[in-house]
Amino acid sequence: MNIEQQALKYLREMTGAQSAMFHDGQLEAIVELVVNNRQMLVVRKTGWGKSAVYFIATKIMRDQGKGSSIIISPLIALMRNQIESASRLGLQVATVNSSLNQYEREANERKITTGQADAIIIAPEQLANDDFVQNTLSKVLSRISLFVVDEAHCISDWGHDFRPDYRRIVRILNAMPKNLPVLATTATANNRVVSDIQSQLGDSIIISRGGLTREALRLQNVALMPKPQRLVWLLEAVRKIHGTGIIYCKTIRDCELVADWLQKHSINAHAYSGDSHVTDRIYYEKALIKNELKALVSTSALGMGFDKPDLSFVIHFQAPGNVVEYYQQVGRAGRGIDNAYGIMMQGEEDERIQSFFIERAFPTQEEIDDLLDAIAVHEGLKVSEIERYTNLSSGNIAKVLKFLSTEEPSPIFKDQSTYYRTAIDYRLPEERIARLNAIKTGEWEQLQNYSNHTGCLMQFLAQALDDPLAKDCGKCANCDPSSVLRIDVINEDVENALEFLKYRYVKIKPRKTFAKSGALAQGAFPIYKLPYKNPNWIHEEGLALSRWKDGVWGDLVADGKKKDHFSDELIAPMVQMIKSMPTDEQPRWLTYVPSPRHPNLVRNFAYKIAAALDIYCSDAVTIANTKPPQKTMENSFRRSENLDGAFTVNPSIVYSDPVLLLDDAVDSGWTFTVVSALLRKTQSGKVYPIALTSTSNQG
C-alpha cells in the first residue's frame, strides 16, 4: 500500500465514512510532511480538516517506526476534540495542560518519556514550565518525528489572538534538527500574519492556502439595540432556528446572564467559560455534541478547534474584537450541514469592553517597574510572595511575568519556583505596543464597517483575511434577503426582559480566609490588629442591587455618584432586594460605611432606606484615618493593609440585633470584611452587607 492509499484508509477510519475523500490540499500536505520532510504553513478555512492532516501523518510515521509527534494547542477544549479524533486512528495521546490533576499529569509524562505516546499535545504555557521542559520534554525532543503548531496565528503579535507563550515555540524549534517536518495550521491569518509566521519559522517553509468562503453559512447582522431588546430578539431567534448552537458573549457575567434568561424561558442553555470547572466544561461540550443542549453560551474559551459538524447556529450577543476573530468563531457552524446561521448582534457596551481589552493587553511600565523592583530588593521572589511587595493583582502579576519571560533579552529569569532580576535595564517597547494597539483599534473599526456592510458579508470576511478567491456567497442576508431571520420585538416582552435585568442581584460572599498561600496565610504579615479569621466576626452573605453601568440600576448609581446624590428611584428596588434576602432573623437596625470624600452620599441614602424599612439608622461607624481610595489598591495585601485603622465603631450606638451594613459599592469585599469585624467585636448581631452596585471587574 503506497502513502496515498494508506492515508485514504486512515481518513476513512477517522471519519467513519467509507466514501470519505480528502479535501483539496489535505493529501498533498500529508505527503509533503511524511515523504519530503517539509516545513509547511497551511492556511485553510474553518472545518477544512487540519487535524486530519497531522494525525494521519502521525499514524503513518508511527507505522514506519518513527518517533512521536508534538502538537502545540492553545485551548483545553480544542485538546479534548483532538484526543477524540486521534483515538479513532488508535493513536495513544498524552496531553500536558493546567486542567490535569497531579496523578493524570504524572501518568501522561511517563507515557511521553517511555515513548508510549504517539502524539503529545502540549498547552503553550507548559513551555514556560522549566521542570516539564527539562525533565520530560527534553528527553524526547531528539526522537520527535513531526512538530505541529496548531492555530499558528497565535505566534504573531500581528495576529488577532497573539499569545506570548507561543514565542517559546520558535526557540524550541531552533534547537531541533533542521530537516524535522513542521506543520503550522490556521484559518485566520492575513498576509501580514502569514509573512510574520514565515519569518519566525524560516524562509524554507512552504505555504498552502485555499479559499476561505464557507458555503453553508447564512451570515446576518442585527442593528444595535439595548440589552432588553437584544435578549428578546435572541430568545425568539433560538426558538426559531432548528438544531443546536453556540451563543458568544464577551464577558463571563454576560454568559451567565444570557444563559439564565434562556433557561427562564425553558431553553436548555448553559454558561461556559475558562472559569467553569473542568468537569462542567467537559460535560457541556459532550452534551452539546449529543444535541442534549440547545445552546452553550460561551466566552472565546469555546472556539478554536471545537468540532460539531451539525452545529446550526452561532450567534454573537455582543460584537467580537475584530472580523478575523468573528470568522474563526462563526466558523464553528455549518461544517457538515448545508445551512447554518451566523448572526452578529451588537450592544451599547461593546466599545467600552473592547477598549478595556485593548488598554489592558500589555502591562504598563509602572507595573513592570513595581514587579522588577520587588524582585530585586528581595533578591528573588516566588509568585505567591509578589503580591505582598507590590500593588499588583494576581492576574496582573501573571501577565507581567509572562510578558517579561518571553522578551529577549529578558529582565527576569526563573530558577525552580523563584524569579530573579537580571542585569538588563528593561524598558517597555512602547513603539511596538503603540503599533499593535493602533492595529487592534483599526480592526475594531473594520468590524464596525462589517456590521454596516451592504455587500456580501462572507466576501467581506474573506477579503479581510486576504483571500484571493473571495467572491459573493449568494446566501447571506445581503445576497439573499429572503434568507433573513426576521424577529418581531414586542414591547411587552421587552418589559419582561427589563424586569429580569433589574432584579439580578450580585451576591456578596464573606471572606473566610485571608490568603490561599504565602507568608500572609501563615500569619507572618505584622500589620493587622484585627484577627480577621475569627469565624464569629465574619459577615453573612449579602447582596448588591446592580453591576456598575449595567444599563439598568447600575447606570442610575453611576449617575448618583457623579452628582453626589442618589436618586430616590433606587429606594424601592433596594427595599425589595433587602426583603428578598434569606435571614435567620430580620435585621432590626442599619448602619453604613462612611466616605471621607463624599460624607453625605451614603449617609443620606442610609437614612432613607432605614425609614422605608421602618428600622433605626445608626452612625455607629466613623472614619478614624483618611486613607487612599480603596479602588487604587490592586490586591488583598494592599486592600486589607489600606483599611487597617481606617474605621472605628462607637460601641454606645451598636445594638445586639442583626444589622444591615450599607455601602454604595462593593468590589473586593475587604471594606465589608473589616467593618463587619469591628461591629461584631463590639457585640453587634449578625451583619448583612448590602450595596447599591458591584464594581468588580471579574469576568
Automatic annotation (TrEMBL):
<keyword id="KW-0378">Hydrolase</keyword>
<dbReference type="Pfam" id="PF00270">
    <property type="entry name" value="DEAD"/>
</dbReference>
<keyword id="KW-0413">Isomerase</keyword>
<dbReference type="Pfam" id="PF00271">
    <property type="entry name" value="Helicase_C"/>
</dbReference>
<dbReference type="InterPro" id="IPR002464">
    <property type="entry name" value="DNA/RNA_helicase_DEAH_CS"/>
</dbReference>
<feature type="domain" description="Helicase C-terminal">
    <location>
        <begin position="230"/>
        <end position="376"/>
    </location>
</feature>
<dbReference type="GO" id="GO:0043138">
    <property type="term" value="F:3'-5' DNA helicase activity"/>
</dbReference>
<dbReference type="GO" id="GO:0016787">
    <property type="term" value="F:hydrolase activity"/>
</dbReference>
<protein>
    <recommendedName>
        <fullName>DNA 3'-5' helicase</fullName>
        <ecNumber>5.6.2.4</ecNumber>
    </recommendedName>
</protein>
<dbReference type="InterPro" id="IPR027417">
    <property type="entry name" value="P-loop_NTPase"/>
</dbReference>
<dbReference type="InterPro" id="IPR011545">
    <property type="entry name" value="DEAD/DEAH_box_helicase_dom"/>
</dbReference>
<dbReference type="GO" id="GO:0005524">
    <property type="term" value="F:ATP binding"/>
</dbReference>
<feature type="domain" description="Helicase ATP-binding">
    <location>
        <begin position="31"/>
        <end position="207"/>
    </location>
</feature>
<dbReference type="InterPro" id="IPR014001">
    <property type="entry name" value="Helicase_ATP-bd"/>
</dbReference>
<dbReference type="InterPro" id="IPR004589">
    <property type="entry name" value="DNA_helicase_ATP-dep_RecQ"/>
</dbReference>
<dbReference type="GO" id="GO:0006310">
    <property type="term" value="P:DNA recombination"/>
</dbReference>
<dbReference type="GO" id="GO:0009378">
    <property type="term" value="F:four-way junction helicase activity"/>
</dbReference>
<dbReference type="GO" id="GO:0006281">
    <property type="term" value="P:DNA repair"/>
</dbReference>
<keyword id="KW-0347">Helicase</keyword>
<keyword id="KW-0067">ATP-binding</keyword>
<dbReference type="InterPro" id="IPR001650">
    <property type="entry name" value="Helicase_C-like"/>
</dbReference>
<dbReference type="GO" id="GO:0003677">
    <property type="term" value="F:DNA binding"/>
</dbReference>
<keyword id="KW-0547">Nucleotide-binding</keyword>
<dbReference type="InterPro" id="IPR029057">
    <property type="entry name" value="PRTase-like"/>
</dbReference>
<comment type="similarity">
    <text>Belongs to the helicase family. RecQ subfamily.</text>
</comment>
<dbReference type="GO" id="GO:0005737">
    <property type="term" value="C:cytoplasm"/>
</dbReference>
<keyword id="KW-0238">DNA-binding</keyword>
<dbReference type="GO" id="GO:0043590">
    <property type="term" value="C:bacterial nucleoid"/>
</dbReference>
<dbReference type="GO" id="GO:0030894">
    <property type="term" value="C:replisome"/>
</dbReference>
